[in-house]
């Protein structure tokens, strides 16, 4: 099937608006249900933040999948495939190792302690200062991440409706803030579950309709191969290559470890499960779901290339950013399936709203448990605490909406979110790893290691973004063709691009050229290395016993048995000593 690439812009019809409005209405009604009609009201801290710790495997699994596959992935990954090829697809190779490491090494520690905020661990293992530092890093990370999450679906909606994204952004965010504020974790989880179904349905519909439009899977694969898009196993060890097999697998392992194993949103959901085994099952389902969704997004990138392989819409000026490719593609194949654009945008918004609601709920837990509660002279009643947390949701939600307008100025979504997220992800993973795997690490080492790590990654990330903005760092893109475009447009294009000189500039500092996929790994290793060195120089933990429950089960075999158990009141106590190994 030969698509007409010169079609005029297409927009939503009435059926599309109905599909989209239904998704928003269902999300809002779930919040209303848990706030006013559920048997157990959301008026206690445990219910609001932890769902009463009685959540089932299915909704928690769906919630985690929805939370970690945002609109950034749905729009950014296909754009990545179209522009740079399939090497990024290899991130799925490290996902299973992430789930195994999390389930065995990190999750048991949090589940044993039964804490509301993952950063309470830093207080138990180190001190209040390190806990505060970790909490602030997490809040910084989410404030950098959520605006990008909001911007993505607003961009897609604007493209397929013609409505300015500055108008749609506040409207949709109000719905998200509404159900998150009223319904707490249960509303977030069940809304995520519905939105995950919508997201899967939208992507499956686009995959099947797109494959049919191109002429079948074999045609998609052949055109992608001819266009040089198929590039899975680049084993070059050069760390400055944007995406090689090593950068995407090793880099993704550390990035996802930071996102899953110690992230407040993940810990909060896993601890909402009735048992550790149930929590481990949800992690396994999460990985399968993520690998499936990522693979669908990658395949859609090949679909888009196969559809436009003779007339690149970016070069032609039909769109201006690679992140607009998928919505543009959906509108072109919309004639085959009425309502497809509405379903697609609902899917993108579902991914975004689930990520935003998860972020708001987890940020509220951290702000309340780590910043407010320890400083209250008089304990709040459950109703007062619940009301305060709802106010916090509204405030931070409003801040995130305001920051959306800053996101507009960024470049490619995948690299922008990865680079900025690594500023805090690496240091946090390093600090938690220090605490759980190195009994000799002390609070001084953890704090200085974390500060050094965040300074290093901030310097590299910001320096790289500045060099990219100045055109000093450019990554080789896969070739595109315009030979199938209109003849009159092609003549104009050639006249505008003739004699376009290129300048030979000295390459920037090598760390600015380091693949952004390595940022989290570098931040983690820096925090651990500096933390251990400073701990050693400051006397380690001599005279300050560390409870066994604060250490990963992976290293328990190196500890003396019979120590560090909880007393009859469940209070952590006891000394830790390393085995002497001959």
TrEMBL record:
UniProt key word Transmembrane: yes
A biological-process GO annotation: sodium ion transport
Superkingdom of the organism of origin: Eukaryota
Entry-linked InterPro entries: Na/Glc_symporter_sf, Na/solute_symporter, Sodium:Solute_Symporter_SSF
Matching Pfam families: SSF (PF00474)
Chloroplast in keyword set: no
Membrane-spanning segments: 17-37, 57-77, 89-111, 132-157, 163-185, 197-215, 243-262, 283-308, 328-353, 387-407, 413-438, 445-462, 516-538
Single GO MF descriptor: symporter activity
Compartments where found: Cell membrane
A GO cellular component annotation in the UniProt record: plasma membrane
Bilayer topology term: Multi-pass membrane protein
Record keywords, A-Z: Cell membrane, Ion transport, Membrane, Sodium, Sodium transport, Transmembrane, Transmembrane helix, Transport
Primary site of residence: membrane
PANTHER family (UniProt xref): SODIUM-COUPLED MONOCARBOXYLATE TRANSPORTER, SODIUM-DEPENDENT MULTIVITAMIN TRANSPORTER-LIKE PROTEIN
Family: Belongs to the sodium:solute symporter (SSF) (TC 2.A.21) family.
Protein name listed in UniProt: Sodium-coupled monocarboxylate transporter 1
């Amino acid at each position: 099937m030969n698509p007409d690439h010169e079609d005029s812009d297409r927009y939503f019809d009435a059926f599309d608006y109905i599909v989209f409005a239904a998704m928003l209405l269902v999300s809002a009604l779930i919040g209303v249900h848990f706030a006013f009609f559920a048997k157990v009201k959301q008026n206690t801290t445990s219910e609001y933040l932890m769902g009463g710790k009685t959540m089932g495997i299915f909704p928690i699994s769906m919630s985690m999948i929805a939370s970690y596959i945002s609109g950034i992935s749905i729009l950014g990954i296909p754009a990545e495939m179209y522009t740079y090829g399939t090497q990024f697809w290899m991130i799925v190779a490290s996902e299973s190792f992430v789930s195994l490491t999390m389930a065995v090494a990190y999750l048991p520690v949090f589940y044993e302690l039964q804490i509301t905020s993952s950063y309470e661990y830093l207080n138990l293992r180190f001190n209040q200062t390190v806990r505060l530092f970790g909490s602030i890093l997490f809040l910084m990370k989410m404030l950098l991440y959520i605006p990008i999450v909001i911007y993505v679906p607003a961009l897609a909606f604007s493209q397929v409706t013609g409505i300015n994204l500055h108008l749609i952004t506040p409207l949709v965010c109000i719905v998200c803030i509404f159900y998150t504020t009223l319904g707490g974790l249960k509303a977030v989880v069940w809304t995520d579950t519905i939105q995950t179904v919508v997201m899967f349905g939208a992507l499956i519909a686009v995959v099947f309709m797109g494959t049919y439009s191109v002429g079948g899977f074999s045609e998609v694969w052949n055109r992608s191969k001819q266009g040089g898009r198929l590039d899975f196993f680049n084993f070059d060890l050069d760390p400055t290559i944007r995406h090689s097999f090593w950068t995407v697998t090793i880099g993704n392992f550390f990035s996802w470890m930071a996102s899953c194993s110690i992230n407040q949103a993940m810990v909060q959901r896993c601890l909402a499960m009735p048992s550790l085994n149930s929590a481990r099952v949800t992690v396994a389902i999460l990985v399968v779901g993520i690998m499936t969704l990522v693979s669908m997004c990658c395949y859609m990138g090949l679909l888009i290339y196969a559809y436009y392989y003779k007339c690149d819409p970016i070069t032609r000026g039909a769109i201006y950013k690679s992140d607009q490719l998928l919505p543009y593609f959906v509108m072109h194949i919309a004639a085959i399936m009425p309502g497809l654009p509405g379903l697609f945008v609902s899917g993108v918004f579902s991914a975004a709203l689930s990520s935003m609601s998860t972020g708001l709920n987890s940020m509220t837990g951290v702000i309340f448990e780590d910043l407010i509660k320890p400083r209250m002279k008089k304990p709040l009643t459950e109703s007062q605490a619940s009301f305060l947390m709802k106010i916090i949701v509204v405030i931070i939600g409003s801040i995130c909406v305001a920051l959306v307008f800053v996101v507009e100025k960024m470049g490619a979504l995948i690299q922008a979110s990865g680079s900025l997220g690594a500023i805090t992800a690496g240091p946090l993973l390093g600090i938690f790893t220090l605490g759980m795997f190195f009994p000799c690490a002390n609070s001084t080492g953890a704090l200085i290691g974390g500060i050094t790590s965040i300074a290093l990654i901030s310097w590299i990330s910001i320096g790289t973004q500045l060099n990219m903005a100045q055109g000093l760092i450019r990554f080789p893109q896969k070739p595109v063709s315009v030979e199938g475009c209109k003849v009159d447009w092609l003549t104009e294009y050639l006249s505008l691009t003739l004699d376009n000189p290129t300048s030979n500039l000295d390459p920037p500092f090598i760390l600015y050229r380091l693949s952004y996929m390595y940022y989290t790994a570098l931040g983690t290793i820096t925090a651990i290395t500096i933390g251990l060195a400073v701990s050693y120089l400051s006397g380690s933990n001599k005279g300050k016993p560390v409870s066994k429950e604060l250490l990963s089960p992976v290293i328990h075999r190196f500890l003396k048995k019979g120590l560090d158990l909880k007393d009859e009141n469940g209070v952590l106590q006891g000394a830790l000593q390393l085995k002497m190994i001959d």
